[in-house]
Amino acid sequence: MASKLLRAVVLGPPGSGKGTVCERIARSFGLQHLSSGQFLRESLRGGGEVGVLAKQYLERGLLVPDHVITRVMMTELEKRREQHWLLDGFPRTLGQAEALDRICELDLVISLNIPFETLKDRLSARWIHPASGRVYNMDFNPPHVQGVDDLTGEPLVQREDDKPEAVAARLRKYKDAAKPVIELYKSRGILHSFSGTETNKIWPYVYTLLSSKIPPVLSDEEN
């Protein structure tokens, strides 16, 4: 293990493939993949104070606010002080980035820049299994049986904000919130941006960048 622990973040709009990129990085470099969505689902199931708070917003169809997500993530990161990790879905706002600054120093921030039309097409074809967060894309990663989850056989749903009419507003909202976060990390010299329409074409460049920071446990070809 490298002497210094690696702290990395992957930023990208909904539909950018950041979950896939994070999974590949985690597998290739032995990093813990920490997903804010996954931790939020776990805290909802756990029924603790933060879970109860988050549930109140979700039941009313509202976004879970910054301070609740931040509490979920800070609790999880405190448990992982001795691990290499990779954050997925956090920080999304300047307030979250500032909270993260208070507990650690980031080494690397990867920003995925995907054209608007590509994101719109991907999101409109996206269906999810609510209990696990598994994501399917009807164009390039469909379920084995139309409309049901591969592992549980439970029905898939399309999120309201993945429906075509909601996608444009959602992407604009992400962009407005993410802009100051991206500027912050750019000013520190730790931001690395990758542009393209296909995750498989972006991946080799991401792999090369990470390899310069931490020894891989899997070769690029093994992915």
Automatic annotation (TrEMBL):
Sites where the protein binds AMP: S36, R41, L62, L63, V64, G89, F90, P91, R92, Q96, R170
**GO cellular component assignments:** mitochondrial matrix
MF-aspect GO terms: AMP kinase activity; ATP binding; GTP binding; nucleoside diphosphate kinase activity; nucleoside triphosphate adenylate kinase activity
Q: Which Pfam families match?
A: ADK, ADK_lid
Looking up SUPFAM superfamilies in the UniProt record yields: Microbial and mitochondrial ADK, insert 'zinc finger' domain (SSF57774), P-loop containing nucleoside triphosphate hydrolases (SSF52540)
Subcellular locations according to the entry? Mitochondrion matrix
| Spans annotated as LID | 125-162
What UniProt keywords apply to this chain's record, in alphabetical order? Answer: Acetylation, ATP-binding, GTP-binding, Kinase, Mitochondrion, Nucleotide-binding, Transferase
Could you tell me which residue ranges the Adenylate kinase active site lid domain spans? 126-161
* Catalyzed reactions: a ribonucleoside 5'-triphosphate + AMP = a ribonucleoside 5'-diphosphate + ADP; a ribonucleoside 5'-diphosphate + ATP = a ribonucleoside 5'-triphosphate + ADP; dGDP + ATP = dGTP + ADP; CMP + ATP = CDP + ADP
What does the record give as EC number?
A: 2.7.4.10, 2.7.4.6
- In this chain, the stretch annotated as NMPbind covers 35-64
- Residues making up the signal peptide according to the UniProt record: none
Role, per record = Broad-specificity mitochondrial nucleoside phosphate kinase involved in cellular nucleotide homeostasis by catalyzing nucleoside-phosphate interconversions. Similar to other adenylate kinases, preferentially catalyzes the phosphorylation of the nucleoside monophosphate AMP with ATP as phosphate donor to produce ADP. Phosphorylates only AMP when using GTP as phosphate donor. In vitro, can also catalyze the phosphorylation of CMP, dAMP and dCMP and use GTP as an alternate phosphate donor.
The family note in this entry says: Belongs to the adenylate kinase family. AK3 subfamily.
Question: How does this chain assemble?
Answer: Monomer.
Write the protein's name: Adenylate kinase 4, mitochondrial
